[in-house]
Design brief:
The complex is a heterodimer of chains A (303) and B (237). Chain A has 303 residues and is mainly α. In chain A, 74% of the residues lie in helices and 4% in strands. The chains are: A mainly alpha (303), B alpha/beta (237). Chains A and B meet through helix 6 and helix 7 of A and helix 2, strand 6 and helix 3 of B.
Chain lengths: 303, 237
């Protein structure tokens, strides 16, 4: 295997990994704070893609067919607010009433929420795939013989910026500290005067907004969206979160990069039809061999 | 003396079980009141109800002249009522300093928080030494100090301590009680829940003995120390 090919595989892996990372962060944040596997999270990503689609369709007359990265960033920010709001409503309506209920009930509710979002979109937009009103340009540059488009580079940079922003917010701000405290002991947080409900709401907003951002980027990059597009990526993000150690935010990003690279190399080795088999094979491997993931601490069941 | 806290005829039920059956107590301004009783007598339920994490079935809780029955815990913290829970419940994966910062969550002015953290460090120098260590690495006694220090950052007018001596060596218990005395001397009212009646009655000015969800004895601390019923049940011999 020559060096250029190797580098190309690494770049491809990092690119896909940055998508997975944005979605995995929301998964991991929500799990960290209320120990809920939010299976509707992938559908929030899908919703992000559809929000972007709608906004671009409405604005098409103004923008024209070829959108610049700057326009897309603005669209992305609006879509983030929209998906963040949906995430927040989802928590209020579907999850909060079940706080304190058995974990299985909440999990089933999450699966229900996922279907509701998917088929809600199927009803509103039709079951057939939609073509994104804009496509990102294909201009590329080469580094050491490997090819990367400017659009890919820009999207990776946006993803990295969002991830670093989140990491710093969680580490340094008052809200971030409260999130970490709630993930350890929500009841003690109540006694310390933290409005736990409002912090949980904020967590859902942020996680959903990040997934929405990934959705818009994916729509603009791959050009085609449909109401089930969140299903596989939701599972992939879950896999990434498990590989990194679920509940751990840096772990989620690390897991996403690892998963992206594994897929990239696995595809090169076995052929692209094996990609998902390969990825979920790793999920099973990690769940059996190292369920705490690469950076995760031992999960202790709270009584 | 005006009362910072008045509890009247408090009833709390968990399902069909009545944990409190018409309990009344008061804490005066600057007082240190001890709540004694055996396991299951209703001590923790009482503080839980006052701090808003246990639902009150009937009866009233008045703090600083305002009705706070079933108020939200965060509103109570903002009013100056803080509850150091049984078992300390510090955040073991946050640093000592972050734990203290969480204590100031309800305070909006960062400079006030930092000022109070500085005060906690000077009162409890062990915490200052370990400020960037994770809370979980501290010893039991240090964790209890951290739990009390964390509560102090909220700037309480009424500090409620649930079994602060639990699981601590006698020397550590004495140190914790010294800290409680220091806090009292700063003018903070204290409600001290203890099974360790001996040390509690040494710090307290007044005490209640509760049994099966009601107050059975109420008296000044020195009188309780001499009361044969208390001696027999809680002080031994």
């Amino acid at each position: 295997m020559d060096f250029e090919y190797l580098l190309q595989l690494i770049l491809n892996g990092l690119f896909v990994g940055s998508f997975y990372g944005l979605v995995a962060l929301g998964y991991s944040m929500v799990y960290g704070i209320i120990k809920l596997l939010n299976f509707a999270h992938g559908d929030i990503y899908m919703l992000g893609a559809f929000s972007g689609y709608t906004l671009l369709t409405i604005g098409a007359g103004v923008i024209g067919g070829q959108a610049s990265i700057a326009v897309l960033v603005v669209i992305m920010l609006i879509a983030m607010v929209l998906t963040g709001t949906v995430g927040l409503i989802l928590e209020r309506v579907a999850y909060r009433p079940l706080r304190g209920a058995p974990r299985l009930s909440v999990l089933i509710t999450a699966v229900g929420a996922s279907f509701a979002l998917e088929y809600g979109i199927a009803v509103s937009f039709g079951p057939n795939p939609r073509v994104y009103p804009v496509r990102l340009g294909n201009e590329a540059f080469t580094i050491f013989g490997a090819r990367l488009t400017y659009a890919q580079l820009a999207m990776m940079l946006i993803a990295v910026a969002l991830m670093i922003g989140l990491d710093q917010a969680v580490r340094r701000t008052r809200s971030g500290r409260a999130m970490r405290a709630i993930s350890q002991d929500p009841k003690a947080c109540l006694l310390m005067g933290i409005n736990v409900d409002s912090v949980i709401t904020r967590t859902f907003f942020i996680g959903s907004a990040l997934a929405g951002a990934a959705g818009v980027m994916s729509g603009a990059y791959y050009g085609k969206i449909d109401f089930l597009m969140g299903f596989i990526i939701g599972l992939k993000a879950f896999t990434a979160a498990v590989i990194g150690g679920i509940g751990n935010l840096r772990g989620a990003v690390l897991g996403a990069i690892v998963l992206g690279l594994l897929e990239s190399f696995g595809t090169a080795w076995l052929g692209s039809e094996w990609r998902d088999v390969f990825a979920f094979g790793f999920l099973i491997l990690f769940l059996t061999v190292r369920p705490t993931g690469l950076l995760g601490e031992r999960v202790t069941e709270r009584v | 003396m005006s009362n910072v806290l008045e509890v009247r005829d408090l009833v709390v039920s968990y399902g069909k079980v009545e944990a409190l059956r018409g309990l009344s107590l008061t804490v005066g301004d600057g007082e240190t009141v001890s709540l004694l009783g055996n396991n299951g007598a209703g001590k923790s339920t009482t503080v839980g109800a006052i701090s808003g994490v246990v639902r009150v079935t009937s009866g009233t809780i008045t703090a600083f002249g305002k009705d706070v029955t079933n108020a939200k815990p965060w509103d109570l913290v903002e009013m100056g009522i803080i509850h150091v829970p049984e078992g300390r419940r510090i955040f073991s994966r946050l640093t000592v300093h972050e734990n203290l910062q969480i204590g100031g969550y309800a305070v909006s002015d960062t400079s006030v928080i930092n000022q109070r953290i500085k005060q906690v460090y000077s009162l409890l120098p062990r915490l200052a030494e370990r400020r960037s260590q994770q809370g979980g690495t501290l010893s039991g006694g240090e964790q209890q100090m951290l739990a009390i220090g964390r509560a102090m950052v909220s700037g309480p007018k009424l500090l409620m301590l649930d079994e602060p001596s639990m699981g601590l060596a006698p020397l550590m218990v004495a140190q914790v009680m010294d800290v409680v005395r220091d806090i009292r001397e700063q003018g903070t009212s204290v409600l001290l829940i203890e099974q360790n009646a001996r040390s509690a009655l040494r710090v307290a000015t007044r005490g209640y003995v509760i049994d099966s969800g009601v107050v059975t004895i109420e008296a000044p601390a020195e009188q309780l120390r001499a009361d044969p019923r208390v001696v027999e049940a809680y002080l031994g011999k």
